[in-house]
Amino acid sequence: MELPFDVEAAEKALTSADPLMGEVIATYGPCAMTITPFQSPFESLFRTIIYQQLSTVSANAIYGRVLALFEGKVPTPEATLDMAADAFREVGMSRQKIKYAQDLAQKTLEGTVPEMTALAHL
Fold first, then answer.
1. I need a labelling partner for 112 at 20 to 30 A (CA). Which of 29, 63, 104, 105 fits?
2. CA-CA distance, 1 to 71, in Å (whole number)?
3. Does pLDDT of 16 surpass 90?
């Protein structure tokens, strides 16, 4: 997916603002970063909660098992709240991360977590 900003303009701004960064950009070339698209802020934050402070291998394994609880899909906020905490524990989520995921789901349903269209304006 394409980045939501002009990479070339960003590189020029960084180069002019910081000569050391300009050297890094000159040495390593243009930004090759890509982003993984997500459907909603909930989806992105839910995944982030699971991945926080874990190795990539461990996080991938736990995330895959969590998705399996929901037929291979990222759960909705409603489904997250409906799922028993023990089910999340059985696939490797810590109690604290379960609380975070449930809080995120609740805040999403309450409207505290903005929708994609609202985020575009921030």
1. 63
2. 25
3. yes
For residues 13 and 34, give the distance between their C-alpha atoms in angstroms, rounded to a whole number: 20
CB 38 within 8 A of CB 101: no
Rounded to whole angstroms, the Cα distance separating 29 from 63 reads 33
pLDDT band at 2 (very low <50, low <70, confident <90, very high): low
As a whole number of Å, the end-to-end CA separation of the chain is: 20
Query: Coil, strand or helix: which one is 94?
Result: coil
2: left (phi over 0), alpha (psi -120 to 50) or beta: beta
Angle CA(71)–CA(89)–CA(55) in degrees, nearest 5? Answer: 85
Q: How far apart are CA 88 and CA 76, in angstroms?
A: 14
pLDDT of residue 18: 95
